[in-house]
Recover the amino acids of this structure.
């Protein structure tokens, strides 16, 4: 199985996404039309992912892959992880993502990330028309994704913090083999 990574962001005025594919980084952006004037930011965020995933799937990039999608929208992540939403509009979008999974044999993961990471990676700027930051300026997509790192690698002070309230016993982090 091959894993690809992507970031997507939507603002009041526009949207953007970047996805690492076999032939390089695919990036797209645009402005919302009048049809989206009255929809929520959560709808915009998920709709952006639906368009991104459907387009890449139809282009043949996602067959039998894992696609890790990063968003700074916690509602989008929550709806996807739960598989539904009480909002009919959001629920319909989640169903479209699940349909792509079934039709193309892709496994989607929607993961929350900090807005600061989204800005550094460059996708947040796409939704505002900024085209030369992060991966769009040639930086490596994987340098913005730290899900494979252990907590002490991401946050060096975390063990000291835990030990500060853990009592007399000094704790150490387990490694994957443990």
């Amino acid at each position: 199985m091959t894993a690809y990574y992507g970031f997507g962001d939507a603002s009041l005025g526009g949207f953007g996404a970047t996805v690492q594919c076999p032939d390089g980084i695919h990036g797209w952006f645009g402005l919302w039309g009048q049809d989206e004037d009255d929809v929520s930011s959560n709808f915009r965020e998920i709709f952006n992912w639906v368009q991104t995933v459907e387009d890449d799937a139809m282009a043949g990039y996602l067959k039998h892959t894992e696609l890790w999608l990063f968003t700074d929208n916690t509602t989008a992540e929550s709806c996807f992880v739960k598989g539904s939403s009480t909002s009919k509009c959001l629920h319909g979008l989640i169903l479209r993502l699940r349909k792509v999974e079934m039709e193309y044999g892709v496994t989607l993961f929607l993961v929350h990330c900090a807005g600061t990471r989204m800005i550094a990676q460059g996708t947040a700027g796409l939704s505002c028309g900024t085209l030369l930051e992060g991966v769009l300026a040639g930086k490596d997509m994987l340098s913005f994704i730290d899900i494979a790192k252990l907590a002490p690698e991401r946050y060096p002070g975390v063990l000291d913090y835990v030990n500060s309230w853990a009592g007399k016993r000094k704790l150490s982090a387990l490694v994957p083999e443990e």
